[in-house]
Amino acid sequence: MARQRPVGTITRGTTNPNRLRRCDRWIAGPQGWRLRRATTPPVVVDLGYGASPITAVELHDRLRRVRPDVEVVGIEIDPDRVAAGRPLERAGLTFRLGGFEVPLDGGTRPTVVRAFNVLRQYAEGDVADAWALVQARLAPDGLLVDGTCDEIGRRASWVAVDASGPLSLTISLRMGGLEQPSDVAERLPKSLIHRNVPGEPVHAFLTDLDDAWARSAPQSSWGARQRFLAMCDDVRRRWPLLDGPSRWRLGEVTVDWSAVAPTTR
After folding, report:
1. Parallel, antiparallel, or unpaired: how do β-strands 93-97 and 155-162 relate?
2. Which of 43, 96, 130, 255 has the smallest C-beta neighbourhood within 10 Å, fewest atoms?
3. What is the pLDDT of residue 3?
4. Could you tell me what percent of the chain has a pLDDT over 90?
């Protein structure tokens, strides 16, 4: 049987060490139960890791603190990028050619698929089909994390998607030097970035974050962290936030997808 052609297109491949630390911290933290619950070594895929395999190496380092037997597989559609990763393979870390079809041996189903800065380079209309391909491959309790961040990981956002559909939107920001939370707007996932306009729920959410950030300015006397905490405490009165102070302290806030999902048009 002929090998299936990888599904997707080659991305620009830009990456940097520690670029995805915010998302890794979230996978290892609030989503760590998915790894711990697995009855066999969980498989986590770094899909479209780019020109450097460093993000897959870092992901493996971080997740094996949660589950020492975790297996991380870096998947890239570019053969040269796969070849660049092969010298770094070790127990629990491998690299292979592929795309959104998520090719794994023996019908293995991944517990987490992290696809960062991949769909950003696609059309908005391509997102649903890409999600569906990955969703069909997920293990029970499996999760697709579709996200975007800036070049050094100071501003990031991601959508969590399970077999039933999107669950949440997370925004994670470096608090030092933060002017306003909506600075993340240009790093929204592809499913939302073109919806940041008046009349769309995600625009209303970012606007409310900015307003609450402004109202919380007096808390900055005790530091940006206290201001961020106050902002989130304000916003949770109007929006279905799914996390609490332990995550807000990290500059991270997660809202239920139903509250920010694009309007149909």
Report:
1. unpaired
2. 96
3. 55
4. 89
Q: Residue 203 CB: number of other CB atoms within 10 A?
A: 17
Q: Which residue carries 């998607």 as its tokens?
A: 161
pLDDT digits 0-9 by tens, 52-110: 999 999 999 999 999 999 999 999 999 999 999 999 999 999 999 999 999 999 889 99
| Per-residue tokens: 117 | 């800065």
The domain that holds 32 is classified in CATH as 3.40.50.150
Task: Decide if pLDDT at 13 tops 70.
Answer: no
Q: Is residue 155 part of a domain?
A: yes
48 in any annotated domain: yes
Full residue range of the structural domain in which residue 50 is found: 21-175+240-259
Q: What angle do CA 129, 7, 48 make, to 5 degrees?
A: 95
Query: Nearest to residue 145, comparing CAs of 119, 125, 108?
Result: 119
Question: C-alpha angle 142/195/125, rounded to 5°?
Answer: 60
The answer to pTM > 0.90 is yes
Domain membership flag for residue 223? no
